[in-house]
């Protein structure tokens, strides 16, 4: 029986390259769109709210905008979805708590890797915080997703694989079961020989399903896979999406 070399670099997309848009915006353009979306979402935060603070490049701008409002007198409590976000929030003076302190959240603002048109189904987790993000989202009365308009797709899986947090113990067996089910998993690395480790101490397997006709069926399959702690399919969770675009801010609600 052949064994794999764990130090071999893995293709994030399992051999399937992401689709490339006709024109890729510059970093400056991209950040401007993200900032616009983040600031628009931050305006929905009201005094006295318990607010979920998302993780990722766009959510970071929303947290920054919320921090400015806190410095101006806004009174909130933030529930961060990652250690990175917690560090940013503390630096901005945002009071923090945990899901143990507040089991119900008024509003969470977070990013996404893909957003399906109309349904607002999501793929999340390429920032590595999908378990905590889903826990915070599931405890929220309202989940606002902020992103660039390039994250909008007709079907999930068009551009990104689905991240899975998996138990490090025997992850190879989990990977084998996923391969047998057609998930095309690839272990995420931070360097050639060092697997990425989440805040919860888990590994991440990025699974390239391609465009999904039935994301609910895929989610059920993943939920039943032993060794999988959580997956990055966020279905029927987002209530609204705020997109930064060259034509201004676009806002959508789930239909």
What does this protein structure show overall?
The protein is α/β, with parallel strands linked by helices. It has 2 domains: 27-151 and 235-244, Rossmann fold (3-Layer(aba) Sandwich), CATH 3.40.50.1360; 162-228, Alpha-Beta Plaits (2-Layer Sandwich), CATH 3.30.70.260. 27% of the residues lie in helices and 24% in strands. It has 6 helices and 16 strands. The protein has helices at residues 27-42, 57-71, 83-92, 130-138, 171-180, 215-223, and strands spanning 50-53, 77-80, 107-110, 114-116, 122-123, 143-148, 152-153, 162-166, 185-187, 189-191, 194-195, 203-207, 228-231, 233-234, 240-245, 248-253. The strands form 4 sheets. It has a 6-stranded mixed sheet, sandwiched between helices. Helix 1 (27-42) packs across helix 2 and helix 2 (57-71) runs parallel beside helix 3 (83-92).
Concise description?
With 255 residues, this protein is of the alpha/beta class. It has 6 helices and 16 strands. The chain folds into 2 domains: 135 residues, Rossmann fold; 67 residues, Alpha-Beta Plaits, CATH 3.30.70.260.
């Amino acid at each position: 029986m052949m064994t794999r070399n764990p130090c071999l670099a893995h293709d994030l997309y399992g051999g399937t390259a992401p689709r490339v848009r006709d024109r890729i915006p510059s970093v400056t353009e991209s950040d401007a769109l993200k900032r616009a979306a983040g600031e628009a979402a931050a305006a929905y935060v009201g005094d006295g709210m318990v607010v979920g603070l998302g993780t990722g490049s766009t959510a970071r701008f929303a947290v920054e905008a919320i921090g400015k409002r806190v410095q101006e007198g806004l009174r909130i409590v933030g529930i961060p979805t990652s250690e990175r976000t917690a560090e940013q929030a503390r630096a901005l003076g945002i009071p923090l708590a945990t899901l143990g302190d507040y089991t119900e959240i008024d509003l969470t603002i977070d990013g996404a890797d893909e957003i399906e048109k109309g349904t607002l189904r999501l793929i999340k987790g390429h920032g590595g915080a999908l378990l905590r993000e889903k826990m915070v989202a599931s405890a929220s009365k309202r989940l606002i997703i902020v992103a660039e308009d390039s994250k909008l797709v007709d079907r999930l899986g068009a551009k990104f694989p689905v991240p899975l947090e998996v138990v490090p113990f025997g992850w190879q067996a989990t990977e084998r079961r996923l391969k047998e089910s057609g998930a095309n998993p690839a272990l995420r690395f931070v360097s050639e020989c060092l697997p990425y480790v989440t805040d919860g101490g888990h590994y991440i397997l990025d699974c390239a399903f391609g465009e999904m006709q039935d994301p609910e069926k895929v989610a059920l399959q993943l939920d039943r896979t032993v060794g999988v702690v959580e997956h990055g399919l966020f279905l029927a969770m987002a209530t609204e999406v705020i997109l930064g675009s060259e034509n201004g801010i676009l806002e959508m609600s789930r239909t």
